[in-house]
Amino acid sequence: MQDERAEQDQLIETFDGRARRRADRRAFFTAALGVAAAGGAFAYADPALAQTTVTDSDVLNFALNLEYLEAQFYLYAVNGSGLPSNLTSSGSGAAGGTVTGGAKVDFTGDPLVGAYAREIAADEQAHVAFLRTALGGSAVAMPNINISSDANGPFTAAARTAGVIGSTDTFNPYSSPNNFLLGAFIFEDVGVTAYKGAAPLLSNKTFLEAAAGILAVEAYHAAIVRTTLYSKGVQALVDATEKISNARDTLDGNPTLDAVRGIGPDDDQGIAPSGSGGTLTANLAPLNSNGLAYSRTPGQVLNIVYLNGGAATMGGFFPNGVNGNIKSTT
């Protein structure tokens, strides 16, 4: 076993390091409290709390909250309306929450982006339906969601603090195909890291395989968004992804580097390429030095969607918090 470990460590050390694509981060929130996984269960690392074991159903319900958010954003962008009420109620029949904001995007100037948006919207609705079926009566209702484009909405708050827009400007992800792509960029990379981070928290292999299937689709979505933004050839869009990435990176704290598990303090990347001329290399897949996608804990994911790097139970895209047992960043 020791020999195998030594060989593994030696192999890891020989991998070429990947060029860091980071300028100094815009520090705009404080560090988040971490979480740790233990034996297929989820344990909060907040010393002020007793360790709380969370079940597979709790983990899937946490994922369902994120799917509600993504589905509503894409469906509104495509149709001007969101999920039907039968896909927002709880498994026991309690009514789902409300959606603030959301609007149909005019994709006539970029029909390819419109086609991508319609595909992703259908996929996200399918994810909601699938998770609700898997959870049955245990499925949580959709929480209140804010996807508003107004001056006080979460998209504007995120864009202002990241420096994508000025302190008095408004960011509307529904105003153009390019803005829609940036709005999608805010979500998609986070979804990939959330599902990857949830993998060791699941003990049921059927649930694990299902989560892996959704992870793969979310990764396809993220690749579509990143590739399309990159192919635009617009420096302002590239710069915006770097700023958003730096903001998310600050929000999710400073976890200890673990290159084998895909955990690290620098776990987010925009789409800025490296090199030039014949060495120009795109950055469509945000990976670590071992070519692995990054993982985020549920607490880190909530820090980002709540737009709060500290201890929080609500805010940002979930003004009253998510539903279920995993709802606090701590």
TrEMBL record:
InterPro entries: Ferritin-like_SF, Pigment-catalase-like, TAT_signal
Signal peptide: none
Transmembrane regions listed in the UniProt entry: 27-45
Keywords of this entry: Membrane, Transmembrane, Transmembrane helix
A Pfam family this chain is assigned to: Ferritin_2
Protein name: Ferritin-like domain-containing protein
Natural source organism: Sphingomonas palmae
Record lineage: Bacteria, Pseudomonadati, Pseudomonadota, Alphaproteobacteria, Sphingomonadales
